């Protein structure tokens, strides 16, 4: 197959969506497909044998790490030259709209996928009044597709409830060789804990942005005075978080990549994930693959991954981020304390988390995606033949 993949974000950016896309492109190419990635220009022209067509853009005011690339006629020329069998638009927002447009103009079957829970993001940027309008825009865009993919059953139910049609789950995936318990090291533990390797080590990995609600970790840290917290990643909310966590045992590590990232997961005692806006939470799978027990909000796609008391802990999230004594934060505190105190139970959680992750490789996830593509292409051919 020849697959044109439109995405609003790609390398060199580091996030869960890019991680999924780069592994997907890699496995699609390995399986004999040809992929053309159309993305905001990041200075990359090729990835794992796939051509990357960069479209110039400008930084988003609220999120400078993200570039907004506007549709332009040259994209149509690139598609006509590539002659795709199918177009896949990832989180169609701006650039993805050109993928929807050209699928109609060139009569190419269209698949769309939903990875970022944008309607829930709005409240964290003071734009909650636009949520209804955004759902209508998402519905209008996604319903142009023959098939809409999302990353969890919870998201499938929510998209369907908001009028998005023909929704299926695109299964999760994780690199179980790259993220492995054997990468645990005292050197990394010392680095993350700022030379206090004997202290309980809590970890967060991901964007430092408002919608991730990282502030919710502070009451947990304060309830366990001897604990250290390492925040791995960067983003537009970093400065505010540095003020929020001032005076606590918090280390702003910045980005880690490659084996260092795998080692960070494997070296920590608990991975704390308070976000309520996750469509899946790929970093949770990475933590579990590395044998790091997770404590996460029971929200979005997270319960699809974490089974309470078996391979991690879930707490009930609450609306008020600032209240340190709410049931949600209290639940998170209790779960974290239990995890740190019960070594035998913690070891069982580690083993079960690794076992769960081992059943979700990228090869299987990409094979499922190829099957979806083939069914969509066949359906299009059948419809054309009947006409």
Automatic annotation (TrEMBL):
Domain Glycosyltransferase subfamily 4-like N-terminal residues, every copy: 14-177
InterPro entries per the UniProt record, alphabetical: Glyco_trans_1, Glyco_trans_4-like_N, Glycosyltransferase_grp1
Domain of life of the native organism: Bacteria
GO MF term list: glycosyltransferase activity
Glycosyl transferase family domain segment(s): 197-354
Protein name: Glycosyltransferase family 1 protein
């Amino acid at each position: 197959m020849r697959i044109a993949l439109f995405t609003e974000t790609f390398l060199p950016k580091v996030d869960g969506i890019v991680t999924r896309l780069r592994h997907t492109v890699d496995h699609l190419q390995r399986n004999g497909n040809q992929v053309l990635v159309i993305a905001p220009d990041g200075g990359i022209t090729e990835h794992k044998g796939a051509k990357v067509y960069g479209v110039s853009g400008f930084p988003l005011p609220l999120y400078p790490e993200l570039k907004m690339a506007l549709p332009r006629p040259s994209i149509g020329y690139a598609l006509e030259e590539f002659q795709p069998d199918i177009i896949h638009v990832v989180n169609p927002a701006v650039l993805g709209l050109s993928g929807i447009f050209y699928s109609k103009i060139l009569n190419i079957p269209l698949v769309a996928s939903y990875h970022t829970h944008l309607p829930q993001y709005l409240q964290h940027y003071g734009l909650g009044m636009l949520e209804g309008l955004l759902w209508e825009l998402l519905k209008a865009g996604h319903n142009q597709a023959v098939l809409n993919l999302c990353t969890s059953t919870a998201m499938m139910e929510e998209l369907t409830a908001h009028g998005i049609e023909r929704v299926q789950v695109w299964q999760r995936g994780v690199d179980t060789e790259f993220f492995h318990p054997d990468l645990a090291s005292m050197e990394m533990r010392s680095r993350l804990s700022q030379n206090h390797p004997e202290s309980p080590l809590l970890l967060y990995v991901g964007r430092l942005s408002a919608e991730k609600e990282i502030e919710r970790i502070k009451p947990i840290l304060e309830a366990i005075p001897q604990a250290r917290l390492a925040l791995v990643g960067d983003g537009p909310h970093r400065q505010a978080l540095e003020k929020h966590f001032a005076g606590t045992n918090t280390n702003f590590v910045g980005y880690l990549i490659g084996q260092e990232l795998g080692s960070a997961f494997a070296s920590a005692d608990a991975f704390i994930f308070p976000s309520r806006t996750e469509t899946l939470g790929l970093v949770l799978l990475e933590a579990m693959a590395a044998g790091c027990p997770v404590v996460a909000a029971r929200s979005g796609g997270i319960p699809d991954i974490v089974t309470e008391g078996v391979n991690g802990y879930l707490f009930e999230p609450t609306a008020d981020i600032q209240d340190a004594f709410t049931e949600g934060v209290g639940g998170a505190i209790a779960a974290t304390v239990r995890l740190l105190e019960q070594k035998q139970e913690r070891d069982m959680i580690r083993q079960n988390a690794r076992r769960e992750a081992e059943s979700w490789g990228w090869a299987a996830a990409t094979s499922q995606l190829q099957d979806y593509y083939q069914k969509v292409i066949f359906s299009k051919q059948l419809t054309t033949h009947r006409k």
